[in-house]
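My main concern about presentation is that the manuscript never shows what a single data entry looks like. For the editor and my fellow referees, an illustration may be useful. For illustration, here is how one protein appears when written out as sequence plus structure tokens:

***
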Amino acid sequence: MNQRIAGTAVGLSVTVLLAGMTLAAAKSGSVSPEEYWRVEDEQDRLRLPLYQSIPAAKPGELTPAGDGADLVNGANWTRSHGGDAGTRFSGLAQINRENVGSLQVAWTYHSGDGAGNMQCNPIVVDGVMYAPTVGEHVVAVNAETGQELWRFKPGGQPAFRGLTYWRGDAAHPDRLLFNAGDYLWALEPKTGKPLTSFGQGGRVRTGHFRVAPAVFKNVLVFAGFDRDVYGYDLHSGKQLWTFHTVPQPGEVGYDTWDQVEGGTNCWGGIALDGKRGIVYISTTPPKPNFDGAGHWGDNLFSNCVLALDAQTGTRLWHFQEIRHDVWDLDIPAPPVLVSVKRSGKLVDAVATVTKIGNTLLLDRVTGKPLFPFRLRRAPTSRLPGERTSPYQPDVELPQPFARQQFRKEDVTNVSPEAREYINTKIRPTRYGWFEPFEAGRPTVYYGVHGGGEWTGAAFDPRTGLMYVSANEVPWIITMIPLESQYRRDPNKPPTAGEAVYRKQCVGCHGEERQGVGTAPPLLALSYRMKDEELFRLLATGRGGIHPTFDLPDPDRKALAAFVFDRDRPAAAPPDHSRRPEYTFLGFQRLLDQNGYPGCKPPWGTLNAIDLNTGKLAWKVPLGEYEELTKRGIAKTGTENFGGAMATAGGLVFCAGTRDHKIRAFNSATGKELWDYTLPYGGYAPPTSYSVNGRQYVVVPATSGGKLGGTMGDAYVAFALPKK
């Protein structure tokens, strides 16, 4: 399927998208300055049909499944996320539902080179674990005892989200492949020394990337940190091809951008169908985040699943979830190769989970969805110069595994005080399904940290169940025009209005007018309030804003001049001959007065999706705030960044929660069977392997990253007691 089809065969056109103006005109520079500052017409949007749909593949169009051997890992785990298929499924069953309660620590490895955040799923080959450390080494560790065998420091953070072991052939030795800084490295696995036959001294300058590379025949494929996908010769390190994730002139998709500001990249990982020679990549939104006024159009290949010929880099198909994403709702997770039952037959597909809680389930060869992909007419933006896409995904199957729209009824119920606090906090905000931004007014929505995240999903090929950990935490994003960011000259005394602000307002609204607690930000206030409204608010108060009856009239006027940015000159007057530019006031979770998420629980979940039917098989809270449990509040789950791993023993292992526990669940029911408190948070997926007939589960435990906390340097391995 050519995703001109997936993007525009549903009846959307750039003419509709830009309300009578084509991207070609914008590209050519023949657009009037007034057009760049126009606000979208809501009535034009409402004239469009409510729904559009991309049809599911017909039974005869589906690709028959192979033997599925590549979907299962055994004693070894040769590539982060469990081999080229990325299933994170172990065929080992020594640890099972009946005995998992006896699981104990087999060994703990401390790298001893600092403290930091580790996000790499470790690999294990022939009884040796290969993994990065917080002190920027790569180490080999005896996977039976936890004893370090060697370490190597390449310069720069190595293997941030993955590494790969390639078994050699008759002419070439085994090699350990990973990124560090701007280089791709190849090490000798037994010694940890650079492979001198590769590049220059074992490394090739490639530019930065973060995910585990994949190897098909003589081609080593990886996705760049900033943009693009690359193929290099596995043996020499010579570059073979480049696929542009932001299309260049003459390439498919070039006409979906009028101009390019920033790239679109791959965060989580890639998958490889080694029999067909197809590599799969998932991509992020265009940059900059939240501001799409500088790149009109659907913006291929952002927010896409891409299928490329691994030998040539030729695009075979692509499928885009969100068009012109201005919410930072990317497809962060690595694709997973799956085989599922459709129309009574087993077919080969690729599945990818997304930040908004969708599962994109696509035929591996054609890219056609296995279920109809519904889109709904989306709201228009209120930002001058923004051009939103008229349709966004409103998927029915596979069933979404996370909330996709913040609603008033979502407000927290953990206590009356918390509910009142959040109700006050959201009073000045906007929220709704794919609600665009408005200058200076906060917007609340789910998904900035998922839904699904870079940690992705695990898949059991025996049952067709996919397991994904998810977050359900609302965020507040506030956009403001760049020209509204007036800065005070530090060499001059404060104005009269600033002096009043610092005496009357700074305690609630902050030094930079950014807002504190329930007090809203006052930046760009002129976009949402007039002088008369401000004076009325000062006189009467509202919510957490106290009335100031005794404020003299000159002080009120001076304060208005300050908060409306009139008492000091702008750095430069707004230039309406160019496009508007926006920035945002930082990433802010919607939290109550005690720091808990501002929505009803669950706040973190583990989900099982039956890919055969598209329905959720089960959904359970993941993680716990013990203080809330002691108050009689049912387990809430916590925000998490771990990712699941499934085994043939009927178990799903998952860490990543704020309570620093790793847990084992019944893979059929979601019942929690075992837990263990790690020394630090386990913010990467576990790995399972076998040495000398004994099954192990190992997980990084370092804390840090997006969930913070005191950081460490550990890998912890578990096994059943020796008999």
